[in-house]
Q: What sequence folds into this?
């Protein structure tokens, strides 16, 4: 079902009056600025621009206000959960979350138990994925991304091009500015910084989101670095300077996973990490963004418990709901899942980026039987969700406006305050009827316009 | 202190090489256009002579073939390769470049790459492409306050200018102004800058002194 509202009508009225030949300017802009999302396919590095659709997702002011309240609440609870899990573990002792779900997760890092993050902030930059259910007309949280959520640079970059190519739309519609994202980041750096400069640590040129790493460094007054630029001495992290001097680093916005951060603490064969970085972190001499061990909070199994966390830590009812989710680990849920496998969406908790997602309705009898056997053998490994009939939004394909499934990633920056950025990455499936919108699955992106915020 | 002062040896190196490759691309591009014109009806071997000075042997039968070989040939001085090298350096230090500077480097590469397989790039188009590099230098020099990163790029440009003049023309007299510029940037970037002074009739020593210049300002080890 196509999402529509009065603001879309206003957009289309104005959009029809524009010179559509200018749409080609978006491709020129992205190629000239190298706005790429790189892929590895058949062992080949493919540098490609991220497919873009000029029709934005439009969110009304009151809707954004509601989303903001819900996302701030959720991130606040997730941060409290992380501090608790790496601290007193009260939520487990209280019986809210079964210990198996924490201690049985590969994302929980017991070696960091008792290790406090600067200012007790661990969820510095969160990317929460939402869809809007066409049945209830409500936004639902699909995923919490608390490790290295990517994608903010794409709508930020394209907004600049949009304003240059179609200024009338911004003159006549009350579109909230989104260019404060860099300031949100740099203010947050300042709040958590124990001393030194801020850097964005990238795995390097061949990473799929390398464009984004450079972009975010630039807009947040940080320096884009790779591991060879950094070294540790006496539990302090330094940038090697070209003149032979050393410059202390206080904030590392790392764009690599925990496993690769420090070869002396994690994967010993990591070629992209900084030896002894964890010693600096443990000594409280550097803020790592996001904190080490956050994966436990965005584990797909833990997702089920987030509403309970909100009630437990904040004493509030969740403002935004999860998609209806079942945990085969619980006997009742397992029974339900096995009986309804053909109409549920099954997700492997260890996978991400749209991988490991199975739609029961598309599986053969044999495949369903195999899946049921896997679930019975490893119930902790899977979650099941009801298929959400989320809205399509208008998308331009070959000059025609057609409906396409799309989600929304909203970014929340947690510094002195928790702030929801008035923008977001809208991803859409490029084929009709496809529910997988992930960029790694070939999806495209749109800008997200917040009205009058 | 501005964040742009914080540069690692890797970043400084990439900035210098960006300046060098941009200058090499511009000089060879312009020389290619001059020799292309000569090949048409005056000196059929003009292109071979030019690229031989850079260690590349070109084989062609006419001016159009020369142009294609200069741009896309399998040799170390092809314009596409030089442009790709400039772009790779620009990508790795993307955060240090403005959109207009990066866009200028990137667009030359894409314009060259787009015509790699159809042999349709003509001399007029190449001349237009080279104006993008002039634009790049213009953007660097018109900024009111030059950032440290710009100084490294301009240092690389001066270094390459001297290198090319020695290789292509072998004249020391024409180097004096470039050497002055190089020494100016060098002394701004390093307290221990050792003045580069070209010596008459000793190209070998001049080349050696020139190649040591970058290590005067970039310390790879602490």
A:
């Amino acid at each position: 079902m196509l999402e529509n509202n009065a603001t879309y009508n206003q957009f289309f009225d104005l959009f029809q009056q524009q010179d559509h030949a200018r749409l080609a300017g978006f491709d020129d802009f992205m190629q000239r600025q190298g706005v790429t999302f790189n892929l590895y396919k058949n062992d080949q590095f493919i540098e490609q621009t991220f497919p873009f659709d000029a029709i934005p997702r439009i969110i009304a002011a009151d809707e954004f206000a509601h989303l903001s309240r819900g996302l701030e609440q959720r991130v606040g609870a997730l941060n409290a959960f992380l501090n608790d899990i790496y601290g007193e573990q009260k939520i487990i002792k209280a019986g809210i979350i079964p210990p198996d779900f924490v201690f049985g997760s590969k994302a929980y890092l017991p070696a960091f138990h008792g290790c406090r993050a600067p200012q007790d902030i661990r969820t510095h930059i969160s990317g929460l994925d939402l869809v809007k259910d066409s049945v209830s007309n409500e936004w639902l949280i699909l995923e919490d991304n608390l490790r290295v959520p990517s994608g903010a640079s794409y709508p930020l970059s394209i907004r600049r091009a949009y304003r240059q190519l179609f200024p009338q739309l911004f003159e006549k519609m009350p579109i909230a500015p989104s260019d404060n994202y860099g300031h949100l980041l740099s203010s947050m750096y300042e709040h958590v910084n124990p001393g030194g400069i801020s850097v964005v640590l990238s795995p390097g040129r061949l990473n799929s989101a390398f464009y984004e790493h450079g972009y975010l460094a630039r807009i947040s007054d940080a320096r884009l670095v790779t591991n060879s630029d950094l070294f540790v001495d006496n539990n302090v992290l330094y940038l090697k300077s070209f003149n032979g001097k050393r410059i202390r680093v206080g904030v590392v916005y790392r764009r690599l996973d925990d496993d690769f951060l420090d070869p002396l603490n994690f994967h010993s064969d990591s070629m992209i990490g900084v030896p002894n970085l964890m010693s600096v972190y443990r000594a409280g001499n550097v803020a790592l963004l996001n904190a080490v061990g956050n994966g436990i909070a965005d584990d797909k199994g833990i997702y089920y418990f987030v509403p309970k966390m909100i009630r437990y830590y904040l004493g509030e009812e969740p403002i935004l709901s999860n998609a209806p989710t079942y945990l085969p680990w619980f006997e009742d849920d397992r029974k339900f899942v096995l009986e309804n496998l053909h109409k549920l969406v099954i997700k492997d908790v260890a996978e991400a980026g749209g991988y490991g997602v199975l739609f029961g309705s598309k599986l053969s009898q044999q495949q369903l039987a195999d899946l049921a056997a896997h679930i019975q053998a490893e119930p902790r490994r899977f979650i099941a969700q009801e298929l959400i009939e989320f809205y399509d939004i208008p998308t331009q394909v070959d000059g025609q406006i057609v409906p396409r499934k799309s989600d929304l990633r909203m970014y929340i920056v947690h510094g002195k305050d928790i702030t929801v950025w008035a923008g977001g990455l809208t991803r859409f499936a490029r084929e009709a009827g496809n529910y997988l919108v992930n960029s790694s699955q070939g999806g495209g992106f749109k800008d997200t316009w917040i009205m009058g915020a | 202190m501005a964040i742009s002062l914080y540069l690692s040896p890797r970043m400084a190196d990439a900035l210098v090489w960006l300046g060098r490759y941009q200058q090499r691309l511009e000089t060879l591009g312009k020389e290619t256009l001059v020799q292309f014109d000569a090949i048409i009806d005056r000196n059929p071997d003009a292109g071979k002579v030019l690229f031989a000075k850079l260690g590349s042997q070109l084989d062609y039968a006419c001016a159009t073939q020369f142009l294609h070989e200069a741009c896309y040939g399998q040799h170390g001085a092809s314009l596409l390769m030089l442009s790709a090298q400039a772009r790779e350096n620009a990508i790795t230090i993307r955060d240090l470049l403005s959109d207009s500077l990066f866009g200028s480097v990137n667009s030359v590469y894409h314009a060259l790459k787009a015509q790699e397989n159809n042999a349709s790039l003509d001399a007029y188009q190449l001349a237009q492409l080279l104006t993008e590099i002039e634009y790049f230098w213009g953007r660097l020099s018109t900024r009111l306050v030059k950032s440290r990163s710009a100084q490294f790029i301009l240092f690389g440009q001066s270094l390459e200018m001297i290198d090319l003049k020695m290789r292509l023309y072998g004249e020391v007299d024409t180097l004096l102004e470039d050497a002055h510029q190089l020494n100016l940037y060098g002394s701004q970037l390093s307290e221990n800058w050792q003045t580069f002074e070209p010596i008459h009739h000793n190209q070998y020593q001049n080349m050696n002194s020139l190649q040591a210049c970058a290590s005067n300002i970039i310390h790879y080890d602490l």
Observations:
- Chain B touches chain A through 27 residues (CB under 8 Å).
- Chain B has one domain: 3-217.
- Residues 28 and 140 of chain B are 21 Å apart (CA to CA).
- Chain B has a mean pLDDT of 90.
